Please model this.
Amino acid sequence: MRIILASASPRRRELLGQIGLAFEVRLSGVEEKAASAEPGAMVCGLSAQKAEAVLAECREPQDVLVIGADTVVVLDGRILGKPSCAEEAARMLEELSGRTHEVYTGVTLLYRPEAGRYTPGEDGSQKNGFRRKTFYEKTKVSFYPVSKEEIALYVNSGECMDKAGAYGIQGLFARYVQGIEGDYNNVVGLPVGRIYQEVKEWLT
Model:
């Protein structure tokens, strides 16, 4: 089966490789438009947009599984995306310092079997010739207090700029993590344990 990750994130690529999946990467090129301001619904919707756009480009007659994902950081009900500049990154980190926030990652799995090889299930999860599963995982992360000087040093490292909430838990900012409740990999960007279990249920 051909597996396609609809994401440019190097962290998601590393996580999928870590669980032993052979896959390729394709970017959706779709203009992402959030249909909801509720974090869970938002990341699910955006992950679906990415996966659907990539699957639409797959013309080969073979089994294909497309994985789309989107991650946001939420503090006091406010969504913190990727910072647009160093000043915004510093502001985000100052808000997160010494507090607990949530990380939501939405995942959409689209499985299109080769013609004639799939019998639709009773759950109605097949639509237009492919099978769909969309879900999100939520992880709580608590930080120790971080001084302005420490934040400045971290921002100057450049590590914060392509990450939701302006930090990477698997990088330098790990030194400020006080505790985690939930899936660590979800914070990195992809709940690969759940993905594996969902796919295994479909294919066995």
About this structure: The chain has a mean pLDDT of 88. The first strand starts at residue 2 and ends at 5. The two ends are 13 Å apart (CA to CA). The chain has six helices and eight strands.
